[in-house]
Amino acid sequence: MFLLDNVAFYLGPLPIYWYGIILGSGALVGLLLAIREGKRFGIPSDFFMDLLLIGVPSAIVGARLYYVIFTWDEYRDNWLSIFAIREGGIAIHGALIGAVLAAIWYTRRKGYNFWRIADICAPSLIAGQIIGRWGNFMNQEAHGGPVDPSFLRDTLHIPNFIVNHMNINGVTYHPTFLYESLWNIAGILLLFVLRRQRFMRAGELFMTYFVWYSIGRFFVEGLRTDSLAFNGPGWLEAMLNGMWAPMSWIFGEAGAIPGDANIRAAQLIGVLIILAAIVLVVTRRMLGLAHQRYVDPIQKEGYISS
């Protein structure tokens, strides 16, 4: 059985991994999408290039800190290992927090309304996730629990090269990277349609991205076996399990949660993000804070770009 190599090529003795190439490609595609849409509003491409240069390091730091916080027992006696990021250990929610904080600072510094820029960048974020998840595929990581390969081939009609690569040490696992990537493809198409609708107000495309991604991540996360998790109250566990239950009708049992924990952090955070996004959209409209529409010209420091 042919398996893909996670090393793309070597620069002398230095291996160049597909994971890094794929993540870099996702960032580049996201940048090009933002630049193209930004031109419609008269925003120079340099703005988005600088935003990427600031946002990527901030996302990496946020992703690492988030992971370390939820796995503190692994690092409390060896602080230097916190910086050993090449050994793995990052989380997408932390990356989003880091990137958003950096974007808030940078957009204000440049005189732009954060919500307007965030709307333009929303498809870029989800495009990066669509592509980036294939890095997990190459590394055979972030997968779900064991599954019968015939289910993947005959029921879900997943290509053989994916099914074969999900066979790890003789056991086939759910390709959760693929489920999330496909969900996000539908999400980016939705964003492309919504951003041309006049009823969309500033910030609402960005919030739609968070809601869409969080819904998909909630259900896919339940299949994974590497979830960041913690011990929580029984009622919260029952609520989250009940919400996830429809997924079991198609995909079977949920993946095992590592250790003795009972709450998957990504699922809880996803639910909170959905609720916060809905409340924020409704509140901003009720208070008249969302008077600008997505299709309106973007104002900067007293003038309007066309």
UniProtKB/TrEMBL annotation:
Membrane topology: Multi-pass membrane protein
Pathway(s) served: Protein modification; lipoprotein biosynthesis (diacylglyceryl transfer)
PROSITE patterns for this protein: LGT
Positions in coiled-coil regions: none
Enzyme class per UniProt: transferase
Keyword Cell membrane attached: yes
Matches recorded under PANTHER family: PHOSPHATIDYLGLYCEROL--PROLIPOPROTEIN DIACYLGLYCERYL TRANSFERASE (PTHR30589:SF0), PROLIPOPROTEIN DIACYLGLYCERYL TRANSFERASE (PTHR30589)
HAMAP family to which the protein is assigned, alphabetical: Lgt (MF_01147)
Protein name: Phosphatidylglycerol--prolipoprotein diacylglyceryl transferase
Pfam families the UniProt entry points to: LGT
Transmembrane portions of the chain: 16-35, 47-70, 90-107, 114-132, 176-194, 206-223, 265-283
Taxonomy, superkingdom: Bacteria
Organism: Xylanibacillus composti
GO CC term, one of those recorded: plasma membrane
